[in-house]
Amino acid sequence: MKKSTEFSFFSNIEELDNESKYLAHKAKEATQHAYAPYSKFHVGAALILEDGTLIMGSNQENATYPLSMCAERVALYTAAATHPGKRIVKIAVAAHKKNHKELTGATCCGGCRQVLLEFEERQHKPIEIVMFGYDGKWIKAPSADSLLPLRFAKENLD
């Protein structure tokens, strides 16, 4: 896979390409289904498969935090379980704090970056990632590999 760390930054959602804009809106919509009674941090993810299928996920918390699940992983695992073998093209992530309508910055956590990376490796193609950054700008990353360049991968286990 070609490695690229060139990110694109957009001042508002309207500057995104149509597919990214659609996924960003769907990610924001998915935040409404988050179960976040502890952190009050509602995260949504929306991904699109190569055949145009849309899959959404939201964070699901548990009183024992390690058993919680991030929105990105909910969407990724749903895609793998319900559409095996179909390539993931792009994923968008959005978040807001409880009772806030405006988005807040939420880039993928390290665990989600690792999972995204392994999905990329399995499908032998990058997954573009769209996130709302902490500076209030939308970010497009060309791949999970660009977000986690010093990764732990299958080769480390051989």
Report on the structure:
By secondary structure, the chain is an alpha+beta fold. It has one domain: 3-Layer(aba) Sandwich (Cytidine Deaminase, domain 2), CATH 3.40.140. The chain is built from 4 helices and 6 strands; from the N terminus they run βαββαβαββα. It has helices spanning 18-30, 71-82, 110-123, 144-147; strands at 8-10, 41-49, 54-58, 88-97, 128-132, 138-141.
% residues in beta strands = 15-25%
Second-tier CATH architecture: 3-Layer(aba) Sandwich
Number of E-type strands? 6
Total number of distinct structural domains: 1
Mean pLDDT: 93
Ends distance: 19 Å
Radius of gyration: 15 Å
How much helical structure, as a percent, in the residues? 25-40%
Strand order across the largest sheet:
1-6-5-4-2-3
List the helices and strands and how they pair.
Layout: E1 8-10, H1 18-30, E2 41-49, E3 54-58, H2 71-82, E4 88-97, H3 110-123, E5 128-132, E6 138-141, H4 144-147
Parallel strand pairs: 4-5
Antiparallel strand pairs: 1-6, 2-3, 2-4, 5-6
